[in-house]
Amino acid sequence: MDFAYAGGVLATGPAETTSDPAALEGGGWWAVAVTFEGKVTCVRFTDVRRAPHPEGPWSAPGAWTSSLDRAAYTAGVRRIRDEIADGVVYQANLCRVLSAPLPAGAGMAGLGSRLARGNPAPYAMTLSVPGLEIASASPELYLARDGDVVESRPIKGTARTAAGLLPKDRAENVMIVDLVRNDLGRTAATGSVTVPELCAVEEHPGLVHMVSTVRARLAPGTGWPELIAATFPPGSVTGTPKASALALLAELEPVPRGPYCGAIGWVDADARRGALAVGIRTFWAEDGMLRLGTGAGITWGSDPAGEWRETELKAARLLEVASGDGAGQGLDQR
């Protein structure tokens, strides 16, 4: 079955697919996915209703491998710290992609329903259409829109408990909030950008996050195409300055991120509402493989071993849910 599921809403009956975000200013209910590299997919569905998450077959994937092993990842952290010392960047988000063979017959409906039960998330979404199979348990809001009001809730700072958050986490969060303010300001009415909440601590399954809220009112004549163009990729998964961080990450990360760290969500063009998550805590199927990204924000105060452990923490519970066998433990051996 081709479907999208988000926020208790099940959408079926795909009627139109486009790569043009201008369609989101027309009519209808759309599922939206944008890869980190900028490939846009918008799918309009005709049957949209409140329903439980669809069920489907699922079985544990094969052995996981990582695009960066521990040595390569910690070397990348040290390289970013060198670039910070040289004034090239202030912060950069270094990521790796985990891959495992996808069992025959396993589908995103089965994985998405497991995630909904085992790792509930405020911006979770499952999308299954030809050429695009995603099951996301994202806790992070990239862009929400209600009429002309837009909001972003960047996450920076992750630990097992609130007591484990460090001064480095707050400094990193404040830096990214400043970046998001500037990004939103490109499409906002003058003087409308505010920060209603700074560095709040939120509890999520297995960990806590430090989260801020940035809000603005759109300038006349702007909408989803302008918003995405001005703010993508999300600041929390790139770095600051954004252009310099992206150039550095292109050197350090050996494989594309794909849907991971992109945007995943829905737009109700008739109601002028929508919510796009940052594509973290996100599985996707590609070329017979199941993939999952994980990463950490690197600052001058980063410890390479500690940042590797943060990537482990973020991935562990998701791999356990997907495999049902404790696969999230001891990832450094994989």
UniProtKB/TrEMBL annotation:
Give GO terms for biological process: L-tryptophan biosynthetic process
The entry's protein name is: Aminodeoxychorismate synthase component 1
- Encoding gene (name): pabB
Q: Top enzyme class of this protein?
A: transferase
From the broadest rank down, the organism's phylogenetic lineage runs: Bacteria, Bacillati, Actinomycetota, Actinomycetes, Streptosporangiales
**InterPro entries named among the record's database cross-references:** ADC_synthase, Anth_synth_I-like, Chorismate_C
Chorismate-utilising enzyme C-terminal domain residues = 70-314
Its EC number is 2.6.1.85
What keywords appear on the UniProt entry? Aminotransferase, Transferase
Recorded GO molecular functions are:
4-amino-4-deoxychorismate synthase activity
